[in-house]
Amino acid sequence: MRTIGVLTSGGDAPGMNAAIRSVVRTSIYNKVKVMGIKQGYNGLLNGEVDEMNLSSVADIIHRGGTMLRSARCDEFKTEEGLNKALNVIKVFGIDGLVVLGGDGTFKGAKNLCDAGVPVVCIPCTIDNDMGYTDYTIGFFTAVETVVDAISKIRDTSTSHGRANIVEVMGRRCGDIALYSGLAGGAESIIVPEMDFDIDEVCKRVIQGRNRGKLHHIIALAEGVGNAYEVAKEIEEKTGTDTRVTILGHIQRGGSPTAFDRIMASKMGNKAVELLLNNESGRALGMKCNEIVDIDLDEALNAEKKLDKEMYEIAKILSI
Ligand code: F6P
Question: d(Cα 47, Cα 37) in Å, to the nearest integer?
Answer without folding.
Answer: 8
